[in-house]
Write a structure and sequence with these properties.
With about 170 residues, this protein is mainly α. The protein has 2 domains: about 80 residues, lambda repressor-like DNA-binding domains (434 Repressor (Amino-terminal Domain), Orthogonal Bundle); about 70 residues, no CATH class. Helix 2 crosses helix 3, helix 4 packs antiparallel against helix 5 and helix 7 packs across helix 8. It is elongated.
């Protein structure tokens, strides 16, 4: 099982995105072909592409090999990037609630977790980030009357976990 994401750091998805963008920029800047970079660390070009586009996490051992290839020697920068790689390997807060989240929603939760500002207008609803546990249970009963008590509690726990990310 992967570790949970550390609070105060970017979400795992945001960390992978920052790291992937940085690595692709460095590779292109140095005019290194993706096939050459991938072969240097012993993976396929498609796997490196998935890392650079934030679809896959990156092992720190592979990161250091890429940084060597790209000529990145600054220790503080290497440590910062290693921190992003480790954070990118973590599970997001909603992963323990996969059975409750509709398919495709995880992407939006990842964007939300990475956001620095959230603006919402919903005059008849209390935003999830401000919900109390009691309100979350009542709201889940009102919107999903087919749920049983145990499932309501799990949905309320998901809403609270989301609140704790703020």
């Amino acid at each position: 099982m992967q570790p949970e994401a550390a609070p105060g750091l970017p979400s795992p998805d945001a960390a992978r995105h920052q790291l992937g963008t940085y690595l692709r920029t460095q590779r292109v800047k140095r005019r290194i072909d993706i096939a050459r970079a991938a072969a240097h660390i012993g993976i396929t070009p498609s796997t490196l592409s998935r890392i650079e586009t934030a679809y896959s996490p990156l092992r720190t051992s592979y990161l250091y090999l890429l940084l060597d290839l790209y000529g990145i020697t600054d220790d503080s920068e290497r440590q910062r990037l290693a921190g992003l790689a480790r954070q990118g390997q973590c599970q997001p807060y909603w992963s323990v609630h996969d059975d409750l989240i509709p398919e495709g929603t995880a992407h939006y939760l990842a964007l939300e977790a990475s956001a620095t500002l959230i603006r919402t207008y919903a005059p008849q609803l209390i935003p999830d980030q401000l919900m109390t546990l009691g309100y979350a249970i009542v709201a889940s009963r009102a919107t999903r009357p087919d749920f049983r008590r145990r499932r309501e509690d799990k949905i309320a726990a998901l809403a609270r976990a989301r609140c704790d990310q703020i």
